[in-house]
Task: structure prediction
Amino acid sequence: MRNKAEVLMHPVRMKILQALMHDKEEGLSTLEMISIIKDVPQATLYRHIQILVDENIIKIVKERKVRSVTEKFYAVNEGAAKLSKEDWTQLTIKQKLNYVSYYQLALLSQYQNYLHSLDEEERLEDLATFSFIDLTLTTDQFKNFENELNNLINKYYNMTDSSKETKTETKTIAINIIPKPEV
Result:
């Protein structure tokens, strides 16, 4: 069994997980992932999908026979694609910095793809937003804030649109919480 953080923080595996998070119920086939993750060779994608399956981070949700080949559809095992507090505390400083670096690079890559996908008119109405604030809270206040924030994110993450008539768009929400050292 591999170190979970090392499995999750690989750039190709991060792209696979991100692609799978958009289609939670039906899952995606490898061919569908290839059409989404265009910058990764097919053989590399297959290898990293297998690592994620072996580590129980993703699962096969259905299989479909296409001619003589069985096409597999994959989905994320809920909660398995996250590091637990215990996983995080066992990492070295270097591993934590690597993990955060890959996370930030994945965000940058996604933002670049978003900007390049806009035409000139859409660029004038860019919907990306960024915030940077310091909160001064007691430990209990921070725990309450964190719980409320998690509940809010989960509420919208788990929301399904029952009326297929309404067009939905995927938005990426990225939140970093960095404690300030005491002075």
